[in-house]
Design a protein that fits this description.
The complex is a heterodimer of chains A (278) and B (178). Chain A contains 4 helices and 12 strands. Chain A is an alpha+beta fold and 278 residues long. With 178 residues, chain B is an all-alpha fold. Chain B has one domain. In chain B, α4 packs antiparallel against α5. The radius of gyration of chain B is 17 Å and the shape is globular. Classes of the chains: A alpha+beta (278), B mainly alpha (178).
């Protein structure tokens, strides 16, 4: 009697939908639908902010308590690398000091010439200081949740900087919080140019912590150590914000465009404070 | 009482996830303790508890995610229900590490896929401006899975301890045991 057996078995499974467990499940799904609707209207933002802020003090305490242990093992692991980096940085400091002297001379000369020609100084962008509430701990999004929103004048598309480097751009703005997409996120892209040659290109996020500079013509020069900065084509992201340094040339001479890996000195996983450029 | 204790545990796990494991990434990934907590609660064969845990954990994950709201909650509710059904009705499984690991692998895959599909649906309906391709989205799958598997058994022990403590407390308060 395979057929009858099949029916009996099926009805046993079907009985599940009459259980309290299924009723609770259905209720929670309906409740979720209501929450989603509320979120689209922005009515859930206070709850979201509370959920983000509630464990923050505890998290900071745990982080502070655990970081010396982490730092100790991390330093042991990276001791050789740190020594090499120290040598390289010492040489770089000497070179930069020389550049600074030249730059100061040029700045003085520039200032004098501007005064002669009557140019007004370019207005600096105002910065909104923001605390990073979370750096997307669970997802693959590569995003920051910031504690400043439309009340602080933050708008979608604005640049987020840390230590003078571009780190993210705003993709969602709530009343008192906002979400910024990290430049290392694979869906991030920004117009850029090479500081040394003024050649325009595009910087895209690459999975992990990488940055890729693309669309550089084969005829244009590109060398390791050169700097990529924002091009200022997008009016919400000002010109000349540092993005990163060319670490490696990824393309060959047969490719249509040159492509390079960029490296940023910013530790994207450990950002605590950032500035939004308004 | 039961739900209050579960809520406190979820906040505790969230703090551990963000504070402690945030400092210890493996291949750039940190574990998802809330997901493991939901899975262990669904395998505990206790009515309702797992759905409450799944809903609350999902809400927290959604609040902390830049993706469109609701994906994690829906995914965890579905995963918890399917795991509960499998362990109670379809295959009455013996809980050993092999079965736990299998449940984790399928559930982790399910979570990632549902969240990705939810994000795609949100994009299609113009509710979310960003989109991550499936290939890139799933590139997090393996490191995340390995990290979760490493913490699976400690989490199972933690949940087992919590469940027994709550059962004992309730039995005592009802006067079943002294």
């Amino acid at each position: 009697m395979p057929f009858a057996y099949g029916i009996r078995e099926k009805s046993a499974y079907m009985r599940f939908i009459y259980t309290k467990t299924f009723a609770v499940f259905a209720f929670l799904v309906v409740l979720l639908a209501v929450f989603v609707l509320m979120q689209t209207k922005g009515w859930l933002n206070p709850v979201r902010e509370l959920a983000l802020k509630m464990p923050r003090s505890l998290t900071t305490t745990v982080k502070t308590a655990a970081s010396p242990v982490k730092n100790f093992f991390s330093i042991l692991y990276q001791l050789r690398k740190i020594a090499q980096e120290n040598t390289r940085l010492t040489a770089q400091v000497i070179s930069l000091q020389q550049n600074l002297v030249e730059a100061n001379d040029l700045a003085r000369e520039n200032e004098a010439l501007r005064n002669e020609l009557g140019f007004a100084k370019t207005a600096k962008h105002s910065l909104a200081p923001c605390t990073v509430l979370s750096n997307d701990p669970f997802g693959s999004g590569g995003a920051l949740i910031l504690n400043c929103g439309s009340n602080a004048g933050v708008e979608i598309g604005q640049a987020v900087v840390s230590q003078g480097y571009l780190v993210a751009k705003i993709v969602y703005v709530g009343k008192d919080s906002s979400t910024a997409l990290l430049i290392t996120n694979s869906s991030f892209s920004v117009d850029a140019r090479i500081s040394q040659t003024e050649q325009a290109g595009i910087v895209k996020g690459s999975f992990g912590s990488g940055l890729i500079l693309e669309q550089i013509p084969q005829t244009s020069g590109l060398e390791k150590g050169w700097l990529a900065v924002t091009a200022g084509i997008n009016d919400k992201i000002p010109k000349n914000i540092l993005i990163g340094e060319v670490k490696d040339i990824l393309s060959s001479s047969n490719d249509l465009f040159k492509k390079a890996a960029l490296v940023s000195p910013i530790a994207f996983n450990n950002l605590d404070f950032v500035f939004v450029m308004k | 009482m039961r739900y209050a204790v579960h809520f406190i545990c979820i906040v505790f796990l969230l703090v551990a996830n963000l504070g402690l494991f945030g400092l210890l990434p493996i291949w750039g990934q940190i574990p998802n303790l809330l997901f493991l907590f939901v899975l262990c609660s669904a395998l505990a064969k206790k009515e309702f508890d797992f759905l409450f845990v799944a809903f609350l954990c999902g809400l927290f994950l959604d609040f902390y995610s830049p993706a469109f709201f609701g994906g994690h909650t829906l995914a965890l509710l579905l995963i918890a229900l399917v795991t509960y059904l499998f362990s109670n009705y379809i295959f009455v499984i013996e809980l050993n590490f092999k079965n736990l690991a299998l449940a984790t692998i399928f559930s982790w895959l399910g979570l990632n896929l549902i969240v990705w599909l939810w994000g795609l649906a949100a994009l299609k309906f113009n509710l979310n401006p960003s989109y991550v391709s499936l290939k890139i989205f799933m590139s997090n799958f393996l490191p995340g899975l390995i990290y979760n598997l490493l913490l699976l058994y400690p989490m199972y022990l933690f949940y087992d301890f919590l469940r027994h403590s709550l059962d004992n407390y309730e039995a005592r308060s009802r006067g079943v045991i002294k």
